[in-house]
Amino acid sequence: MVSDIKKILPIRVRNALSKLDENRIYELRLRQCGVSLNYGGRFFGLSDSGLCGHGMKLERSEIEEVLLKASGYSIYAVNDQIKNGFLSLAGGVRIGVCGEVNDKTIKNFTSLNIRFPHEIKGCADGVIKYIKRERGCFNTLIVSPPGCGKTTLLRDLIRQISDGEHNVLLADERYEIAAFHDGISLDVGQSTDVISGASKAFAFEQGIRYMRPDVLAADEIMSDDDVAAIVRAVNSGVDILATIHARGREYRQKIVRADIFERIIVLSSGGVGKIEGIYNGEYEKL
Q: Which CATH architecture fits 2-115?
């Protein structure tokens, strides 16, 4: 996966990354003022010699070239994604895009954030017993700041619930969880159906109607529409598995109907994938 990403990078960035352990690279941020990366859960600059305090500077043309290569040399063909601030590639790679915004697109790109996906089967082994029940799962929310392993944990929970013969419907809005691309997908279980590229509201409404899932799964609850879609799903008798950017009980301030969640899994900012605590709906530790 990292070797595929390297192909779109400026050669000096590519050479610097080759000096590092690929398994510890989580995010790479390309900016004119300096390149940085999340390496093993901590942010560093990236220089020609490797990790440093302040990373190498890039020309704007180098940043634009990365996005051009990532789009297959057709920015227009992927504009529906770019105008929403990201570009998804095969294998769950997501590129966050910053630049000049107008009504139709983002142009004059100034910085990119490339997210390196990590499929770690078994990372949910210590969690699954707290959320799984005879039919489906408890309504579960995974909480942590960005870059702490929420998506990786979510993917493995989906896989384990699905392989346990429960039908799961996955709303893969930004192609990051199943990362379905040209018939290839990351492992989300044998009984998982995937709707890619659609809003959670659309995926949940259509999925409940036509796919009859036991569990609905989605990454990164952000908007009131996301919450409303989840509430409707719960009222329809479907279980929910989702994530949110927050720190501990802060999630209650971001979700109007936080009471719908029966299990809260909190990841620590002290290390990628580190479980800080597992709680019930009253935020009492289990």
A: 2-Layer Sandwich (3.30)
